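Problem 12. The chain below contains 484 residues. Write out its predicted structure in token notation.
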Amino acid sequence: MRISPIDLAIIVLYLVGITILGARYRRGQHTIRDYFLGGRTTPWWALACSIVATETSTLTIISTPGIAYGGDMAFLQLVMGYLVARAILCIILIPQYFRGEFYTAYQLLEKRFGTRTKSAAASIFVVTRALAEGVRFAAIGKVVSIILGTGDRVSVVVITLLTLFYTFQGGMRAVIWTDVMQFFLYIAGSIAAFFLLLHRIPGSWPGVVHAAAAAGDKLRIFDFHFSLTQSYTFWSGVIGGTFLTMASHGTDQTMVQRLLAARNERDSKKALLASGVIIFFQFALFLVIGVMLFVYRQHIPFGIPGNDPDRIFPEFIVTQMPIGLVGIVLAAIFAVAMSNASGSLNSLASSSMIDFSAARGVSASDPARQLRHSRWWTIFWGVLLGLFGLIHWGPVLVAGLTIASITYGSLLGAFLLVIWSRRATARGAIVGMAAGLLGMIAVKLFTPLAWTWYVLAGTLITFAVGSLVSVTGKLDSDPAGAGS
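Solution.
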């Protein structure tokens, strides 16, 4: 074991405490509205924290500093796109979600195109979310191996079981309020790491700036060179980041569920916009920590297991931070892991329950049975995600974003058909989604296109093919009308 008993005790107390707290929210649950939307009683500021905590994963905390450590801060250009997308979503999508009693994002597609389209979109979501969450669970394994000094992944299973327990019991209300606590914990831990690095680097911040400049301007953010093969430029970042976030926050049930849990449309928009401001400063903090780790390691060398940049921050925590603070920061990283896991479990369960089970006859007239089925879906996804977490995925941040980016375009294209194409049909939407998905798999396998452009490309393919199939289908079904 590589950490002190005091630090280990802090981690154990946190894990047990957050699990007990989350499970207490089972009280007052009578319907799936309570279980999946928290009764729509959550204030906007708590939803904003929950959105950020869900958007932030263990792979974000350990891999974002690794990106800046090995390169520069150009990743922040992608985050600028995150801000643009939020403003667009407040205009075009959030109003659509509050024109009915929706539990999932895909009920919006059902309203326009019917059950088959809803189930097709939900299928893309559950596969994408399961694989992407498997990458996030694997990131936990990297942290655990450094903490314990072994390759043992038993701790990943323990985290999964604890999160599954309180999500099973407490539903969405437990997810949101534990997210809020976990958000403040990991932000506090990251700020503590920042100031510790600042204190130990000779020359403090001016020393960081000087060393970063000497190493090739590692604090550089902007690159205005246009390229379809370079991931982090201003254009791929802002444009690609906009489409990525429009898809992730506008069509992914994990995020949309939080927007639907707001008291009203106005609170939903406030939560989304506030989360954008927070996420920008958060990514800036993680990237600066990566640059500082590069400078710090020039003065005080310490090993990086496997020469893996993803492990530089966890290794610094374990070997360079004082006793007590190590436990707090590691608890913060576990907090992020549990936040992601709980949100994904609840959203996967809600989509499985509403978008699939409802079509097979789980009657709304029996709320107790609906609630019971919802909890069983939570268990099913908990077991499956835990198994996916045992797979080796490679560099975790890029792997997670790439998986999502391949499929997100299909979802976003279908939603844009709802909003912008009056002539779109259910057949067009389904064929468009299939074309977008197959097209992006081909792009990934056979082209050098940077992953930051994937969602835009998938969206264009889906929208274009969906529109074309819709129009030609109408012409074929109504030849007389076509000639008039």
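Discussion. The chain has one domain: 5-394. Students who got a different answer should revisit the alignment rule from Section 12.3.
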